[in-house]
Amino acid sequence: LSSSHFCKRLVQKHRATIRSTQQPASFLALRSTSHDYCNTPRTRLFSTKPQHAVPVGTHDPSQNDNAFQLSMSEIRFGRGIASELSLSFPESVKSVLFLTDSYLFELPHVHRLYQQILDAGLKVHLYTDVRVEPTDQSIYHAIETAKKMGQIDGIVAVGGGSVMDTAKLVNLFISLPEEHDLMEFVNAPIGKARPVPAGKLLPLICVPTTSGTGSESTGVAIFDIEKSGFKTGIAHRNLKPYLGLVDPDMIQTLSKPMISSTGFDVFCHAIESYTARPFDQRPKPLHPQYRPSYQGSNPVSDIWSLRSIELCGQYLPRFYENQEDEEARASMILSASMAAVGFGTAGVHLCHANSYPISSNAKKREYFPSDYPFLKDSSPFIPHGQSVVLTAPAVFRFCTQACPDRIRKVCEALSIDEQKIRRASDEQIGDVLSEYLVEMMQRLGVPNGLDAVGFKESDIDSLVQGVLPQHRVTKLSPRDFTEKDLARIMHESMKMW
What we know:
Layout (H helix, E strand, L loop, with lengths): L2 H18 L4 H11 L23 E6 L9 E4 L17 E5 L2 H4 L2 H12 L3 E5 L8 H12 L6 E6 L1 H15 L28 E5 L11 E6 L4 E6 L7 E4 L9 H20 L7 E3 L13 H23 L4 H21 L3 H11 L1 H4 L18 H6 L2 H8 L4 H10 L4 H6 L5 H15 L16 H8 L3 H4 L8 H10 L5
Parallel strand pairs: 2-9, 3-4, 3-5, 5-6, 6-9
Antiparallel strand pairs: 1-10, 7-8
């Protein structure tokens, strides 16, 4: 669906609603495009009662919202764009906190950015103890270390999602005038979901070194809570970075397994946001500040998500096969940012919800992925993209009942055989997408299901219990589910071929 075609249809609907009713045209245009522009009659399958988990006293449970709010960081994209890093801070910035991890800092293209800031005459505080798959304790360590460094006017994060998410939370906690706990800002019902204050944070510039998370564009930060043993997050539009410098040259050193894992993270970001419960199926906030970051699928996010799906289908296999393919490399890191624009407003759902207990239990499974050089002295680790995609085929089969037309659009965006798509009924189209994903997973070296990363049938109940509190994402599932449904998804994901 091209943007020009979408805009033409949106204008036609807008004009029609003005002629046919006296209700506010902006409301009608949004509502009609949410459900009609792709001919996706999903509302009949949803409960009329708002399903999103929200803090008590912040929303009106008796009515649904009629609006969505777009929010993203400023993004600069292009080869060599990272060379503009030192020129991109406001003039008031004189002292910078540079966050990365110890492995990345030794790479020439990352160390050059550190040197670039020094050469620009800025004072630089260096922090390289960022943990891959951060925990609440690793984040607290980064916060306390930063507070002892003296004056900090701006922050640079060079790395993947772990580095960028850690930097966002360091920025939040060193910018607040009083002491706070992470759980105050963690999403409900796990935490108190306190809004991130506007205008308080330092300018944060993110330079991604993977083609996956899209964290440079969102106000989301994910981490493990060590005592409880599962992942959670803080999500608020005011947490988003000041600027993202998306440079294809920064991902030249990715190994094949890293390309595969981060690429499937993009895939799932885009498909989940496109198939998420619509924005007008959540409760209406009593104040705009309580409108969540993840609001459900909407006409604008749909454009970015579909285009990201197209790019993933076309370029992820090429990039995996040949890391020197400049077009594929540039397309995949661009696709990651596009997907982030989509899911940064629409959100993700069950693939990511399932991934949190999967990755959090890596230590118990003693799983180490191959060709991850930074893991030489690390704990057992399931890469985020792997933990997300391992249940994706089963998730999208399950969700098809609620949004068959959307699943069909995804298949078309991936250029799956037209006759196969045409022959598939609404009940079968989820199988078409799932078969495509399984074939792609085999091609790109993904482990064969949860069993291959150390889980057994006896672990299913604990995995399900780890999914249930993740309301920030589970409530965006296009189809209502029970614990038995989640258990079946986990069972189907034990082995896939």
